[in-house]
Amino acid sequence: MQLISLTAFRSLGTVTGMIALLLSVSVSAPVPLAAQDRAPQVPADSVVALPELRVEIGRLRTGSVPVAEVPFPVNIISGSDIRGTTGPSVARALTGSAGLSFTNQTGSPSQPDIRLRGFALSPIVGVPQGVSVFVDGVRVNEADASQVHLSLIPGTAIDHIELIRGSTGAFGKNSLAGALNVVTLRGEERSVEMVLEGGSFETLKATARGSESLGSFDGIVTGSYDRSSGWRQLSSTEEISLFAKIGGRGERTDGWLSYSFASHHLEGAGPLPESWLDGGPLPPDISDPPDDRRELQYTGGSGDMFRPVLHFLSGRIERELGDAWTLQANAYGRLVDFRQSNDNITEPDALGLTNIRTVGSTAQVSYEPTGRLITTAGVEWTRNDVEIEIRELPNRTFPSLTPATTERLQTDENNFGAFGETWWNFRPTMSLHGSLRFDYVDLPVEDLLDPSGSGQNEFAQFSGGIGLSKSFDAGWNVFASYGRGFRAPVILEVMCADPDDPCQLPFELGPDPPLLPVVSDTWQAGLRMTKIRSQAEVTVYLSNVHDDIFNVTDLETPTRGFFTNLDRTRRAGVEASLSLVPFSSIPLTVRTAAGWTRATFESEATLSAPFLDDDDDDDDTEDPADDDEPTPPQVELGDRFPMVPSLTANLGLRYELSQTSFELTGAWVGGQFLVGDEGNDAELGNLDGYVLLNASLEKSFRAAVFYLHVTNFLGTNYQAFGIVSRNLRGPTEAVERFLTPGHPAELTAGIRVHLQP
């Protein structure tokens, strides 16, 4: 039976301190340069400059202040940069950001795992999440496990992306590392754009977008189709997306209504035993392996498949109530169905069917009496109706099994939030920001097959932050801030938290002991420099996390596991970025970013880390160390999280003439500990670091742009993910590294036509 966990007042002292100054910024970001305030006047001898960055305040975005007066790091990615890339997507747009790292457990290019400051932003069910993701202010972390499917966000409809680092209370639960907000396009003057692209591995992509503005009304429609056979066995992709938005602007009122549809079919070949990659023995059913063994798929059956279908309706209205008061409100309905099939070896195949129905609304009042003060306050409510059904199916190991439903759960989750925020430029060179928010989560779980497994879960928590920024002459600025964030356990975690009854993640759930919500305290400070032709930022941060939720792997059956609270974990690091136009008369832009991340356990625990302390090597039955049962090591203070590289670095060079542009980008990713080696023993080795280089060439001809893009043009053989496990298809079922091969060199070419009658 589930228990009630109320933790709203566990840190009343911190909350009281924050109430002293109810200040904040829900750091958003500017629209592209065409719609934002222009950069300072460029000297006559200069032909290239960087735009001035401005941010908007509030949970639903209002007002506008220079980014130098915000005490949090903010990344802003314009829509023109996103749509200028091949296959525009949110994940691809984030590459090159300081401190972000990418892994890929499934092997599908549409399902990357992202780490921000050591916290996860992942599509994988069972990976504890630490980043909130919004589309036009609507949370899109899925209600069953808080996972995020960035591929469901239409890349062709993005106006800009805002990445806010650190806990900012206005965003509510999950914002341990920060928040990501995707702002979609509004209709502008009449135009039509079409893109056709083809490339390696039978890749075909086609997109179309139409925009119109008639008087006070505007509208936009985009659609895309993307398919690829994949470079590995059972790794095909097919994605269909549609987005439409209509809006109207009056003298005192602005509003819009949007609809998104997505239907995807994604196969993931997953990791392979290292012995296979090194030319070792293969199972008898693989009689004719490919020349490149990286193309193999492990299970030998039908493979893993993920098929989501999304319908998303959202609307927003803004009304000026007077010279200083403004009301903003949104409402939304989001329907998503997931069909996830897993191909198993020692257990029946599993089919998970998840239906999520979400409705909600946010209302916010803003007060801006002068250009030096913005105050907002609001409330929001979200209801998630979730139904989960899990079926077991026959396979080669269980050919005579009768298909049956093993789990059926449902929940009617309600989330309530109230927040207040203020930005105050109390001196010409100093600004103060802060926020305070209260969240209440009601999570009842009904087990439809075993009513005794039903239960009630409640979580309540204050969060918020406070910060100060100080500007100096010549474009220099310093900032410092504190923020408290939290994350409430989700249905998957509260129903899979019993170490004596591990789940076949994510396909077996039941009544388990209660989990506590995660709470983080984040301090960060930084230095910014903003010039006409250069922008730079360096940030140092420290996050102490209490009751962090971690996925523990079962020792005997690594496909099973459970969730547990860890007393203390920590994230610390340094992030640095630089954008530079080095020459006043040469159209060359240089962008570089680097991050040092240290994600560590700060309390002892026994976690997954299977097999690494099994010392059975001499067959001495009298030796107690010789035990065929795997014995995991203890995680000790300072042990590092797996799949979080200590160092990452990115470099981009773009040379742009009137009709031609060339871009070269590179990324260096440092070594990483494997999943299953949380004790940092590294007896089987770590994941090696690697370097990737990409190149693009564009040529304009009238209304058309022809482009060529090469990914990983050096053909680097790297590993995108690693885990320690038994090779159940090997001759001795030995423990070894399982590695997901990184994507090889890929060539794409396309044409983009923009017509403006």
Describe the protein's topology:
Layout: H1 12-19, E1 54-57, E2 62-66, E3 74-78, H2 79-83, H3 90-94, E4 100-103, E5 113-116, E6 119-121, E7 131-135, E8 138-139, E9 158-165, E10 178-184, E11 191-199, E12 203-214, E13 217-228, E14 237-249, E15 253-268, E16 272-273, H4 274-277, E17 304-320, E18 325-342, E19 349-370, E20 373-393, E21 404-427, E22 430-447, E23 455-471, E24 476-487, H5 491-494, E25 503-504, E26 518-530, E27 534-553, E28 560-580, E29 588-601, E30 605-606, E31 634-635, E32 647-656, E33 660-669, E34 690-701, E35 704-711, E36 719-726, E37 735-741, E38 746-755
Parallel strand pairs: 7-10
Antiparallel strand pairs: 1-2, 3-9, 4-5, 5-6, 7-8, 9-10, 11-12, 11-38, 12-13, 13-14, 14-15, 15-17, 16-37, 17-18, 18-19, 19-20, 20-21, 21-22, 22-23, 23-24, 24-26, 25-28, 26-27, 27-28, 28-29, 29-32, 30-31, 32-33, 33-34, 34-35, 35-38, 36-37
State the end-to-end distance.
Answer: 65 Å
For the record, the CATH architecture stands as Beta Barrel
Q: List low-pLDDT spans.
A: 1-48, 609-621, 623-630
Specify the oligomeric state.
single chain
Q: What is the H level of CATH, i.e. the homologous superfamily?
A: TonB-dependent receptor, beta-barrel domain
User: Which CATH top level class fits?
Assistant: Mainly Beta
Q: What number is the mean pLDDT? A: 86
Helical fraction equals under 10%
Fraction in beta strands: over 45%
The largest β sheet comes out as:
22 strands, antiparallel, barrel
GO molecular function: siderophore uptake transmembrane transporter activity
Organism: marine metagenome
GO biological process, one term: siderophore transmembrane transport
Keywords: Cell outer membrane, Membrane, TonB box, Transmembrane, Transport
